[in-house]
């Protein structure tokens, strides 16, 4: 079974968004939604090496979004909605969920462009 390129937004995959400009500072927390380049974020395709995230908690409210929209320009305005974030600036903090077959997929973190979005399958 191959790893999914997109994950349902109902999954419990928590992630942290790092400052996309020039820092390792955590600016927000949210839930992974998708890394499919064709996925839409407010009617705009996601693009390669990006992740769609449900923004949940802003650690720094005034940080600019990586891809702002006409409705939102900073992370605080994106809370409760999906935002686009560069994959090398997203760290997965919890990525275990159950499939119908009792298998679990897990990934400790996503770093860099080469392995962004790659999840491995593990038998229970």
Structure description:
This is Transposase Tnp1/En/Spm-like domain-containing protein. It comes from Cucumis melo var. makuwa. This protein has 124 residues and is an all-beta fold. It has one domain. The protein is globular.
Give me the number of helical elements.
0
Main β-sheet, spatial strand arrangement = 6-5-2-1-7
Low-pLDDT runs: 98-124
**Fraction of residues in helix:** under 10%
Secondary structure tally: strands: 10
Q: How large a portion of the residues is in β-strands, by DSSP E?
A: 35-45%
Mean pLDDT: 76
Structural class category:
mainly beta
For the record, the count of structural domains works out to 1
Order of helices and strands, N to C? EEEEEEEEEE
Notable features of this structure?
three-stranded antiparallel β-sheet; mainly beta
What is this structure, in a nutshell?
This is Transposase Tnp1/En/Spm-like domain-containing protein. This protein is mostly beta strands and 124 residues long. The chain has no helices and 10 strands.
Write the layout of secondary structure elements.
Elements lengths: L13 E5 L7 E9 L5 E2 L2 E2 L4 E9 L23 E5 L3 E5 L1 E3 L5 E3 L13 E3 L2
Antiparallel strand pairs: 1-2, 1-7, 2-5, 3-4, 5-6, 8-9, 9-10
């Amino acid at each position: 079974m191959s790893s999914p390129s997109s994950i349902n937004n109902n999954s419990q995959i928590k992630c942290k968004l790092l400052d996309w400009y020039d820092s390792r500072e955590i600016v927000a927390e949210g839930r992974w939604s998708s890394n499919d380049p064709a996925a839409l974020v407010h009617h705009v395709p996601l693009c390669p090496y990006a992740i769609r995230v449900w923004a949940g908690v802003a650690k720094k409210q005034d940080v600019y979004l990586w891809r702002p929209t006409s409705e939102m320009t900073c992370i605080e305005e994106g809370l409760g909605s999906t935002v686009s974030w560069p994959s090398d600036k997203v760290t997965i903090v919890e990525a275990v969920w159950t499939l119908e077959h009792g298998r679990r997929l897990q990934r400790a973190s996503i770093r860099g462009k080469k392995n962004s979005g790659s999840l491995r399958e593990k038998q229970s």
